[in-house]
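## tool: complex_structure
## caller: assistant
## args:
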Amino acid sequence: MRVRLSAVFLTALTMIFGLLTLVSLVVEDGLGLLSQVVATTPLDALVALLLRLVVIITAVAVLAGVFNLIAVHVRRVVARRGLALYSVVMLASFGLVIFLSVRRPNEVAEARLALEGVQIALELAFASLVLFSLVYGAATLLQRRPSWTSALFVLTVVVMLLARVLMTADAPWAPLVAWVETVPVDAGTRAMLLGIGLATLVAGIRVLVGQDRATRD
Amino acid sequence: MLQEIGLWAGFILTLMVFSYVLGDNVLYRLAVYVFVGLSAGYVAVVTYNSVLYPWLQSTVLSGELLQIILGFVPLFLGALLILKGAGPFGWLSGLSMALLIGVGAAVALVGAVRGTLIPLALAPARPELSLPNFLFGVIGVVCSLFYFMYIANPTPSGKPRRSLPVAGMALIGEAVLTITLGTLYASAVLTSLTVLTERVGFIVSRLGAGG
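## result:
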């Protein structure tokens, strides 16, 4: 089996960064020799620096992504390919935000507020559009894959919607709805959170012991 | 005056977004592109103002040689990410990825244990629950976790099959999870209905203001 030196080096580097961070975050006072080692070495300062570097690298990656988006649309406008109108609109709205941000705040405060109002209006409009997708999804669920789980799912959705919209506190089915919300839903939510936590734990350990090589090209 | 223009722009864009109910069309797409442009602009501005500028100010613009060199290190590592998939130098992006993934995995691991697993394991269920309901909750959690367990015995035909107790527990877990997801779905429907009602109210109020 051929092993690439760069891959081994990068895996080792990942493990070193990960284990240093883990030791710094986990080891506290009262753990004997381990606590002494952490206290006498500049490990905490080093890990604090590593965390700051990670934040800055992520920010640079985000800006690179935005730059790439703009470059793609500029190329589309310059080449006058189809859909150039959409790109012009996109670049204009992007440019407006940048223009208002580089000016002094007191000069353009009202314009900024107006633009934020437009952004919020758009976000709310898209969020409300989700309603149609959700209702359509629930309606087609039974038609496409009829099974006992899809039937139970749609039944739960309908019962919960009716209960929340129509139910009064003294309705005869109120205790049942309250029981569903406090017992099975609570259990299911806990199980999903535990599942996510366990999966994160396993994925983290696999990276730290070098079993997962996430740095391959 | 500008506020009023902003409100009218929001009104027109809201109508353009709602035109999607009639099917995919030019107006809806224009609204999407405006949204993408605004969002990209805000992301770039916030990222620069709250992350990059403070870092540059405390390092590159500090005037101390050591700080200046340190300030360029994450910028260099961030630039290396662009090389990913770029021929023979592509592996250099792995240096940045090693730092991101190594530190990220450790932080996620500690966060999962301290923030999710330990609190959920130690925190009791709702204190007002009776013993049967408490037991039902515990069984629900255990069975739901069994539903996600994919260990099975091979059969002579080669098809893997769960043992009867595990299959039974997984079935109960599936029902618990379905009820949970159904309830969350109903909450999402109600939330979006509330937002839609607010938007319709906004449209009506704008029409009233214009008329």
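## assistant note: The longest helix of chain A spans residues 43-79. The mean pLDDT of chain A is 85. Handing back to user.
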